């Protein structure tokens, strides 16, 4: 394996880590995208105050999920929920902060999702935007690293073109973190870089960088998470020379990582999650690079009626059976997944999305409302 000069990471990745996300806007002209620096400054300052390392997301406009929703007409409500529990304001949903589809809408409305990865104008605009963010925080010790995107895929609300394949994503990562990452390193020699893909495999696919890869085995690695259906090759992305550590996610509420079995949802989700973490532990060892579970969630029954999938703007309809779990099951799940990760070769675990009752805008315990 070719070695490359990489920054010295913090003493360990097994320290408190949070995602730093930037609320996106769409100024004109679109080639002059500017980060909302004041808001991100507040996030960074709060993290530094509490000694939390931030995995600063460049997913401000590169989040894979950005379904279009009507612009609210009422005034801003920081809680984002009306008294009857319905979603009201922009910014409440995790997919409401810009994304790949926002770029496509503004530059080539009506095109496919994966145009983001291949169109030179869009790539140039993204690079210009990211450069502004990197310069601002290059010397800030609060940052753990830069994440190029969130759950990168060929499709989202917009469909994929017939030409999009796993190499499309890998080539984009190298386009951004190759010559561009070297540019980041000239501005920032203090932070790591990860792609931010969801961790899907393409076993048996042609590789651009992975000299060693997992061989297809439908008994051990069955189903769409491994056969390339998602058109992502997490092994090839991790093996690319500019990536310092790998990323993967775990959302059994939205993704069926392994084929259905005759088990309850909670039992299946716990078991499938452990096998998914184990697969990535093996990948980390095989590729000789750290892996981090950058997002995991298991929705409880109390929150199921408010749960909105990544590619939607409304909760599941009442006709969909509740797949939420009891709180004690969620606690057991997170403990089990984290134990499998940290006792293996996965070096970090982040929960998504942290929810706690009683916080005010100043971080003090107040009302019992979320």
What is CATH's topology name?
TIM Barrel
Overall domain count:
1
Q: Into which percent range does the helicity of residues fall? A: 25-40%
What would you say the CATH architecture is?
Answer: Alpha-Beta Barrel
Cα-based radius of gyration, to the nearest Å = 20 Å
Number of strands: 7
Protein topology:
Layout: E1 17-20, H1 37-49, E2 53-57, H2 100-108, H3 115-118, H4 120-137, E3 143-147, H5 166-177, H6 179-187, E4 192-194, H7 234-239, E5 246-250, H8 265-287, E6 291-296, H9 301-304, H10 327-342, E7 346-351
Helix pairs in contact: 5-6, 8-10
Short structural description:
The chain is α/β, with parallel strands linked by helices and 370 residues long.
Description of the molecule:
This protein is an alpha/beta fold and 370 residues long. The protein has a single domain (17-351), classed as TIM Barrel, CATH 3.20.20.80. The protein has 10 helices and 7 strands. It has helices at residues 37-49, 100-108, 115-118, 120-137, 166-177, 179-187, 234-239, 265-287, 301-304, 327-342; strands at residues 17-20, 53-57, 143-147, 192-194, 246-250, 291-296, 346-351. Helix 1 (37-49) links the parallel strand 1 (17-20) and strand 2 (53-57). The longest helix has 23 residues, at 265-287. Mean pLDDT is 78; it is low at 1-32, 75-85 and 361-370.
